[in-house]
Amino acid sequence: MAVHNKPAKGAEADLLRSPLPTPHWGSQGGSAFTVRAVVTVNATPTAVLDSLLDTSNYPAWNNFVPKVDLPNPSDKRIGADVLFTEHVDMFGQGKPSGLVKMKLLMTTLKENDEHNGSKSYEVVWLGKAYPDWALRSERVHAISCNKEGVTTYDVWETFSGPLALFVRLFVGNTLVKRFKQWNEELRDYTEARTHT
User: Fold this and answer.
1) Which of 86, 44, 81 is nearest to 182 (CA)?
2) CA nearest to 52, candidates 159, 136, 153, 175
3) Do residues 161 and 13 make contact, with C-beta atoms less than 8 angstroms apart?
4) What's the count of helices (H) and strands (E) in the chain, helices before strands?
5) I need a labelling partner for 37 at 20 to 30 A (CA). Which of 10, 15, 22, 114 fits?
6) Burial 100-115, CB ≥16 within 10 A → b, else e
7) Cα angle at 34 between 173 and 48, to 5 degrees?
8) Which of 183, 95, 107, 186 is CA-nearest to residue 139?
9) If residue 59 lies in a helix (H) or strand (E), which one and from where to where?
10) End-to-end CA distance of the chain
11) Mind listing the pLDDT tens digit for each residue in 125-167?
């Protein structure tokens, strides 16, 4: 697939009060909400996927989650059915916090052949930081080649359960900023890595 060099456009990010359904939890009601960010990347879907899953490079580009702990310290990539820990910097300055650690389980890594000859991917991370009765979260990464020949990276996380209301009230707007930052930094890193 040819990659077209188009001007970089900033990521779009929003907090959706009508939550998007997710593969594991489906449609959620009540105090559920979704944080979503979308960006185009001048690289192949496979290059975007590689940047997303290779956590050894997170310190080089990811100021929201500058560190990830994998079960086997010699591993560099998040794999299917792997429980991992994100060290989150809610200020987006690239400083891993000892206070904010999120446990996630990669439940899905789907590869699809598209009609235009490219690949598309769906990666799903299920939140495991809290009991399911208190807070459910699921992050979906959809990576596909759009009709302009560039990759669309669409990530959303839906939160539900009794604690979702507090997450939205206290850090909802911050999560929107950090998801936008994640997308833009992933784009910039991937484009720099693939165009050198």
Assistant:
1) 86
2) 153
3) no
4) 3, 8
5) 114
6) eebebbbbbbeeeeee
7) 95
8) 107
9) helix 58-61
10) 17
11) 999 999 999 999 999 999 999 878 899 999 999 999 999 999 9
DSSP string, 122-187: EEEEEE-SS-TTT-EEEEEEEEEE-TTSSEEEEEEEEEESTTHHHHHHHHHHHHHHHHHHHHHHHH
Residue 89's H or E segment, with its range, is none
| Amino acid, res. 127 | G
| Number of residues that make up the chain | 196
35 secondary structure, DSSP code: E
Contacts of 135 (CB under 8 A, 6+ apart): 127, 129, 159, 160, 161, 162, 163, 164, 167
Side-chain half-sphere exposure of 75, counting CA atoms within 13 A? 13
Q: What does the buried/exposed string (b/e) look like for 43-64 if buried means 16 or more CB atoms within 10 Å of the residue's CB? A: bbbbbbbbbbbebeebeebbbb
pLDDT in tens, 68-102: 999 998 999 999 999 999 999 999 999 876 668 99
CA 54 to chain centre: 13
**Distance (Å) of CA 106 to CA 8, 45, 121:** 29, 19, 13
